[in-house]
Amino acid sequence: MQNNILFVASECTPFVKTGGLADVVGSLPQVLNQHENTEVRVVLPLYEEIIEKWHEELEQVTSFVVPVGWRNQEAILYQLSYHGVVYYFIGNDYYFSRKGTYGYYDDGERFVFFSRAVIDALSLLDFKPNILHAHDWQAGLSVALANILQPIEALKTIFTIHNIKYQGIMPLDAFHELLNLPNDHIGGMEWNGLINCMKAGLYHADKITTVSPSYADEIKTTYFGEGLYPILNERHEDLVGIINGIDTDEYNPKTDQHIAFNYSHSRKKKKENKEDLQEKLGLPIDGEKPLYVMITRLVEQKGLHLVQAIIDEFLQEDVQFVLLGTGDYEFEDYFYHAAERNKDKLVAYLGFDEAIARQLYAASDFFVMPSLFEPCGLSQLIALQYKAVPIVRETGGLKDTITPYDEKTGTGNGFSFTNYNAHELLHVLRYALNIYHEPDHWATLQKNIIKSHFSWEDSSLEYIDFYQNILSTEEKTQD
Ligand code: ADP
């Protein structure tokens, strides 16, 4: 059977990225399209930064009118092809010609419009999907509308949770003001008296996936379920966790154009990258000095409170630490001042910068990721590609991808700690430093890292099976 799958998402490399969602939506379709009888296309909002960078490639397909409450909004549909994938873009100046992606007071309305436009576009495309695969809350309503409006015959739906913390919540009035649907559909979109776009996706989708097996278990609990665990328990038979992969052509130290010295296994070249970076960031230049790195959104999820608690104490060791990130003012302010206090040891690079990120992966000995929770995490996988040793907290996808180094058996591809506790983090940061100074253990650990492999090869096959199963199921589970 032919799998025609339309991905619906709010970000996707190389067009627009704020985090790992963009990496996944950017790389998975390219890999899936190499499988027989499978074509994935992707639909995204046309943000201003996409127009700026891609206007020469964008081709207008059509325009149509989208009802948003009592107003009619024009949607202009564009497309372009990139690396074997057709990308559609929904343009509307009012909603998307703005700086950046999210964080506007009317984000809910913007993604109501986007979701409705995607559904109304289905009959206009020269591509007839049999699966609509929506990603995270921004696309949740597209699943609900596909189920309610039935825009094309026998369309199956999949909703993937990349992070259950962000749910897209609006006042209940939004149902009448924005959605133009009969009242009996409120129940499938409402949660705790509010419209919840993620709940709408979870309720209406034929199947639900998330991005690691551990996270699939965790989100069924009160601690990790962010209030939505009752629905996930109700739908547990339809929920699976498939681990994310990374694009190993893109994240490849051998060919990466952003880094100073390309390498595959050479420690010498890695040290040269370190020295290059130290010079660039104004750190003392010493290729032997252990370098710890974090590249992250500066939000509570990423374990920054733990790092705050121990950073001054840890920096008494003979190490350097670089944090690249942007996000909550609380953390930006803290690390700015921490770097002022520790001038020769800590750099806080406050911004979002792909080139610096690559240079940090290439330069670092350790990649620190002490997350409070982590659906999958791609950064630790990218770190492995660049032979930086991940130091992680055992949660979600971090638990599924990083095995702690065991001195007795010589197994493991990183370091980890269990409890969300700053002194456990401090202990493991120091333990990792001891191993760094023990050449035999360090060499064994490096060999294990070279063997770790997190491309899309296996996970894309899991998706193919999943698509085939869903297409061979006659009955919808929800109506
Ligand atoms: P999340 O999706 O929760 O942000 P992931 O680990 O899954 O976390 O993915 C993060 C992605 O975003 C990685 O590709 C990482 O390199 C990138 N990234 C995060 N912060 C920055 C930054 N400040 N500058 C450049 N890239 C960043």
TrEMBL record:
| Database matches in Gene3D superfamilies | Glycogen Phosphorylase B
InterPro entries in the record? Glyco_trans_1, GS/SS, Starch_synth_cat_dom
Q: Which reaction does it catalyse?
A: [(1->4)-alpha-D-glucosyl](n) + ADP-alpha-D-glucose = [(1->4)-alpha-D-glucosyl](n+1) + ADP + H(+)
Q: Name one GO biological process term.
A: glycogen biosynthetic process
All copies of domain Starch synthase catalytic, residue ranges: 4-233
Segments forming domain Glycosyl transferase family: 283-442
Q: What class of enzyme is it?
A: transferase
The positions annotated for binding ADP-alpha-D-glucose are 17
Reported EC number(s) for this entry are 2.4.1.21
Listed pathway(s): Glycan biosynthesis; glycogen biosynthesis
Task: Recite the UniProt keywords alphabetically.
Answer: Glycogen biosynthesis, Glycosyltransferase, Transferase
State one Pfam family annotation. Answer: Glycos_transf_1
The protein's GO terms of the molecular function aspect are: alpha-1,4-glucan glucosyltransferase (ADP-glucose donor) activity; alpha-1,4-glucan glucosyltransferase (UDP-glucose donor) activity
Indicate the family of this protein: Belongs to the glycosyltransferase 1 family. Bacterial/plant glycogen synthase subfamily.
- Sum up the protein's function in the record's words: Synthesizes alpha-1,4-glucan chains using ADP-glucose.
The record's section on PANTHER family has: ALPHA AMYLASE DOMAIN-CONTAINING PROTEIN (PTHR45825:SF11), GRANULE-BOUND STARCH SYNTHASE 1, CHLOROPLASTIC/AMYLOPLASTIC (PTHR45825)
Q: What is this protein called?
A: Glycogen synthase
Per the UniProt record, the source organism is Paraliobacillus quinghaiensis
Q: What is the lineage of its organism?
A: Bacteria, Bacillati, Bacillota, Bacilli, Bacillales
